[in-house]
């Protein structure tokens, strides 16, 4: 008797799970993956588009290229999930019954959540770089910009790839230095956090780098509104920061599908057990990647580590076994610092980023919390790894699902 797994979302996490599951399950299991897009975007590449490192042709490929044989790819918009009926209904009216549902609908920017952000100045003086459209518009702006005050701002947490706004600031610093006009550009980093990052030891290192590169930090800045005419952002305490160009990371929200289905939180993230990745909606619904509300980074490396745990737990569920509390919040992220250098951080739920070596204790070849060209090479190599290994569900050699303590300095 045929049973059905339905995966919602063919982004990083959903595509990866379609590959994992097709290899692991026999043909008695029909796997369907649903998405309304036809293109798969390498989202870490958005960061590099404004600075001319990548163009759209480098980071966009057809979705169908990465869906394995034996998985049904359904293109179209989803209307609702009906957990009590084990059913997904499309906007078209088509229905999909499931025995197991995997939610991988990701997160997107919601600039409309901030007063004034989506006004006539959007993508003219106010930009995002979390979409291809925003990054491409910024590339055009920077091509002819003669300088002024560049403000990089995070509206609120959580966001996709928490280090990306910092990377943008560092790359902007290097970009304008290389153009010979850094003295004509004031760079300001305005954040709702008390420092550059969410973890104290990494914040100390990153704050130092911001100061070293003459990037002003405005901490504890919680944006209330954008005034496009006056070119200012205002926080709830009455503080204002002026800009000539505003590069903002708007509020991030999960899919509206969660709101329509009445299974999400206030930001449309689906309540999920942080260790097993089983949702708190119903026992046969699991979630992965940016769609969850777990307190881990919303980043591709996290989805990769989650994927190996989720695969095991879906198989455990099918076999009637106890689920494994196997995900420890592990994340590792390269942080571009400009001029061909990068940092690497490695952390989880219980350990913040610290110095040391990765992936081999005492050997490396990558150093943690330390700028190096080797780390930059790792960052740039990740695009190949992403297309050829990560989203195809291949194990990354020497990189473990759980964070390893060996080789790290916790003192």
Main traits of this protein?
about 400 residues; 24 strands; alpha/beta; 3 domains; FAD/NAD(P)-binding domain; five-stranded parallel β-sheet; 8 helices
Description:
25% of the residues lie in helices and 27% in strands. It is an alpha/beta fold. It folds into three domains: 3-106 and 255-318, FAD/NAD(P)-binding domain (3-Layer(bba) Sandwich), CATH 3.50.50; 109-251, FAD/NAD(P)-binding domain; 331-390, no CATH class. The strands form eight sheets. The chain has a five-stranded parallel beta sheet with strand order 5-2-1-9-20, with helices on one face. A five-stranded parallel beta sheet has the order 11-18-12-13-14. The chain has a three-stranded antiparallel beta sheet with strand order 6-7-8. Helix 1 runs parallel beside helix 7. It is globular, with a radius of gyration of 21 Å. The chain starts with a strand and ends in a 21-residue tail after the last helix.
Reported CATH architecture of the largest domain? 3-Layer(bba) Sandwich
Low-confidence stretches: none
Shape: globular
- How many structural domains can be distinguished in the coordinates? 3
Please give the share of residues in helix. Answer: 10-25%
CATH-assigned homologous superfamily of the largest domain: FAD/NAD(P)-binding domain
* N/C terminus separation: 56 Å
Radius of gyration: 21 Å
Average of pLDDT: 95
In this structure, how is the largest beta sheet organized?
5 strands, parallel
In DSSP terms, counting alpha (H) and pi (I) runs of 4 or more, how many helices? 8
Spatial ordering of strands, largest sheet: 5-2-1-9-20
Helix and strand content put the structural class at alpha/beta
What name does CATH use for the topology of the largest domain? Answer: FAD/NAD(P)-binding domain
């Amino acid at each position: 008797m045929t049973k059905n797994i339905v995966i919602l979302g063919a982004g990083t996490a959903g595509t990866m799970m379609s590959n994992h599951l097709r290899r692991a399950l026999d043909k008695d299991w029909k796997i369907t993956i649903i998405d309304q897009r036809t293109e798969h975007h390498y989202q870490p590449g958005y960061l590099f588009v404004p600075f001319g490192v990548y163009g759209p042709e480098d980071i966009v490929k057809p979705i169908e290229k990465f869906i394995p044989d034996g998985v049904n790819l359904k293109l179209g918009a989803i209307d609702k999930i009906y957990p009590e009926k084990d059913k997904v209904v499309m906007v078209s009216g088509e229905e999909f019954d499931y025995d197991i549902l995997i939610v991988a609908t990701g997160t997107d920017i919601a600039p409309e959540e901030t007063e004034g952000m989506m006004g006539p100045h959007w993508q003219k003086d106010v930009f995002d770089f979390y979409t291809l459209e925003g990054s491409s518009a910024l590339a055009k702006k920077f091509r002819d910009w003669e300088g002024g005050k560049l403000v990089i701002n995070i509206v609120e947490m959580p966001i996709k790839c928490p280090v990306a706004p910092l990377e943008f600031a560092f790359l902007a610093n290097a970009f304008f230095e290389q153009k010979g006009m850094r003295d004509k550009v004031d760079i300001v980093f305005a954040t709702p956090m008390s420092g550059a990052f969410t973890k104290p030891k990494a914040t100390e290192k990153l704050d130092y780098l911001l100061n070293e590169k003459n990037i002003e930090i405005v901490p504890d800045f919680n944006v209330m509104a954008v005034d496009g005419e006056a070119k200012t952002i205002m926080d709830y305490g009455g503080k204002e920061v002026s800009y000539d160009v505003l590069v903002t990371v708007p509020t991030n929200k999960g899919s509206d599908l969660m709101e329509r289905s009445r299974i999400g939180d206030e930001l449309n993230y689906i309540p999920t057990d942080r260790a097993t990745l089983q949702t708190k909606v119903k026992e046969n619904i699991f979630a992965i990647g940016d769609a969850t509300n777990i307190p881990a980074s919303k980043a591709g490396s996290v989805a990769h580590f989650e994927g190996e745990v989720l695969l095991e737990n879906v198989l455990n569920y099918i076999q009637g076994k106890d689920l494994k509390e196997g995900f420890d919040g592990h994340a590792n992220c390269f942080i571009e610092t400009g001029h061909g250098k990068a940092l690497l951080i490695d952390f989880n739920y219980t350990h913040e980023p610290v110095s040391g070596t990765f992936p081999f204790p005492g050997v490396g070849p990558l150093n943690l919390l330390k700028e190096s060209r080797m780390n930059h090479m790792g960052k740039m190599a990740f695009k190949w790894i992403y297309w050829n290994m990560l989203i195809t569900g291949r194990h990354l050699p020497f990189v473990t699902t759980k964070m390893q303590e060996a080789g790290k300095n916790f003192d």
